[in-house]
Amino acid sequence: MATQEQTAKQIWDYFLGQGWTKEAIAGLLGNIQSESSVIADRWQGDIIGNMNGGYGLVQWTPATKYIDWATQNGLVYQDVISQCRRIQWEVERNIQWFPNPERLDLVNISFREFTQLKNVKLAAEYFIAFYEHPEYPNQPARARQAENWYNLLKNTSGVTPEQTKKGEISMQCLYTKPLSGGSAGIFYFNGIDTVHIQHMDTVKLLKQIYKANNGKDIPEYTWNSKEPWYARLEQVAPNRK
Questions:
Q1: Domains and CATH numbers, the chain
Q2: How many CB atoms sit inside 10 A of residue 13's CB?
Q3: Separation between Cα atoms, residue 147 and residue 191, nearest integer Å
């Protein structure tokens, strides 16, 4: 089993690569330490297989909330990076993030805005209040833990969005596949799921964004019914409804 510090470093590097501030990642880690002791394969109360309880780094409750999603996306649910991908997926959709009536002193911000916070203590407080929602959201220990993680990891080398050559940024493409009625459609794979692009202006914009971030053109594929590679891709990255 990986040590607490090794797992924390994986989390740190992943979210640094997603553009989070170091302070926001530290705030997340301070909460993860309290939720799961930074153990990805952690069941609430250590009752293994209890799908009604919490599970994982942030103790998704019920456990099926995360495990079903991971399974549907072809991910190993016990894996640290799989769980990081779920959190990033939630950020992009502002899922499980909402104000806490017990912390009216915290102004309402989006999950993405949280990822850009520059204050470790504030980040820890936002995550417990807006994401974890425990019965008692005032838990100063989480902020202290966050400060400890920040001091431990802030000077370590990591992967910034500009430096990323592997993983989420490279795992993107555009592909064309046949549709019913004999027509063809263009789809975008973002590393997690796929989506049918309805307008060519959107395709143009995606190409511009990808090239600006990666310095090269986004990969493009054209597949037909005789070479249905799109079916393989969509087994692990289903079309977004």
A1: 4-153 (1.10.530.10), 173-236 (no CATH)
A2: 20
A3: 32
